[in-house]
Specification:
The complex is a heterodimer of chains A (113) and B (112). Chain A is mainly beta. Chain A contains no helices and 11 strands. Classes of the chains: A mainly beta (113), B mainly beta (112). The interface between A and B is medium-sized, with 21 and 24 residues.
Chain lengths: 113, 112
């Protein structure tokens, strides 16, 4: 069966510091991968998605970037965090062909101080 | 692009009663409609979904209905239990699930 991991689970970082959040998927090949941000415990905003290694699509302009160095690894980064980057970051995956469901990881709670 | 509106934002019901959450979407090309349940501090969990070639789907106490003409779909939970308390999100996709647009969420409280 497929499993999606995210780490760290929680993170407190000062303004201006760098960020690296990691997401990995097990039990599947060639997944679509997604990063979402959830502010104030409510709506989910799609930040980035990737259909393959090195292929990243950005949905909204922001202080963040994403990379996919391996087939089942997705990384969310920032060079300098802003207070507005605080939130709950969720990684998700879906199969490339013949499937439409998206499955979410446990999330990372980021607090920028 | 797609826009999804979800109502109500909060819903309180007595244990054993039914709960209904409604969503409307704007893109008539949308063809996949999932519902997610999110418990506090956790990632959303897919609980049921429906595709545009089906009008209704049931899974035990949970059902989803779709009205393509009116462009709305609803989640129905019968015989609610305290463990049903959570935030529920609807979503719509017109690109075979590659991009989901989410509603703002509904906080469901089941009072025992």
């Amino acid at each position: 069966s497929q499993t999606i991991h995210q780490w760290p689970a929680t993170l407190v970082q000062p303004v201006g510091s760098p960020l690296s959040l990691e997401c990995t998927v097990e039990g599947t090949s060639n997944p679509n991968l997604y990063w979402y941000r959830q502010a104030a415990g409510r709506g989910l905003q799609l930040l980035f998605y990737s259909v393959g290694i090195g292929q990243i699509s950005s949905e909204v302009p922001q202080n963040l970037s994403a990379s996919r160095p391996q087939d089942r690894q997705f990384i969310l980064s920032s060079k300098k965090l802003l207070l507005s980057d605080s939130g709950f970051y969720l990684c998700a995956w879906s199969a490339i062909i013949g499937d439409t469901e998206q499955y979410f990881g446990p999330g990372t709670r980021l607090t920028v101080t | 692009g797609e826009n999804v509106e979800q109502h109500p934002s909060t819903l309180s019901v007595q244990e054993g009663d039914s709960a209904v959450i409604k969503c409307t979407y704007s893109d008539s090309a949308s063809n996949y409609f999932p519902w997610y349940k999110q418990e506090l501090g956790k990632g959303p969990q897919l609980i049921i979904d429906i595709r545009s070639n089906v009008g209704e789907k049931k899974d035990q106490r949970i059902a989803v209905t779709l009205n393509k003409t009116a462009k709305h779909f609803s989640l129905h939970i019968t015989e609610t239990q305290p463990e049903d308390s959570a935030v529920y999100f609807c979503a719509a996709s017109s690109e075979y699930g590659n991009k989901l647009v989410f509603g703002a969420g509904t906080i469901l409280r089941v009072k025992s």
